[in-house]
Model the fold of this input.
Amino acid sequence: MRRVTFAGLLAAGVLSFAGLSGASSAGVGCESRLAGNTGSWRTISRGLDVRKMRIRFWDGTSAGMTGVRIDPDHFEIRLKWQFGKGALKAAADIARAAKAVAAVNAGYFDENGRPMGYFRSGGTVFNSRLLFRGRSRALHLGAIFYVLNNSGKAGIATREEFDSRGAREAFQAGPYLVRNGRPDPGLAAYREYRRADRRTVLALGNKGRLIFIVSDEIGRGISWCELQNFLARPESGGGLETVEAMNLDGGSSSQLFVNGSDRSFNLAGRLVPALILAIPR
Done:
């Protein structure tokens, strides 16, 4: 068993610096855009859209990802933490039990199934520590996703800016990929910046809609810098034009279950303790 079980971080050297990549510009080798035959968003339930995406990269290769877009006016966002020996259930089973239309894996966890960084679900705080707050390193834990208690509004903040007061749901992960519509700097020294792997991304669109994006089960995968390029790129240029985006646990942890009124599908991953659920209001 790995010292840390969140997928791909220690094994891939994310926690250690690999030195700046050979390219002199962060944009070189990161260009990514939707392939010409990629379909548009398809509504499968009120306030719930899906999109199968084929992303083409600078070197001519491509990778598949699936996006789910959620209107917060119609869905409540809840976090689920599974704990205890033998307690882990598949995302599809958790979603069905909660009557959720979508479930996606969330943040990182250690070999004992404990959350790496802050994690709050409803009235229960499973980890109150904001790891590496005030430090310039460990950007893989540099972002906080939160849902406010009164309004139900969802957002992403840096670990330095996050205020737990008023947050009903929140967890720490990262890195912060897109901030205020632009790629967040400082990631080029990490190995995952150039390393393609299966990914899970949480993003916010320009109309406040929440977007889950998960790599297909088989394929090339995508690097952090390619994600930044694609997520921040204007829609007219083949991107998603997100306003905010953060990376979640990936590799074998990446998974997505969707159960719409006229379509259901499941991108499978290993059993994980942390999930994000979208539940009809």
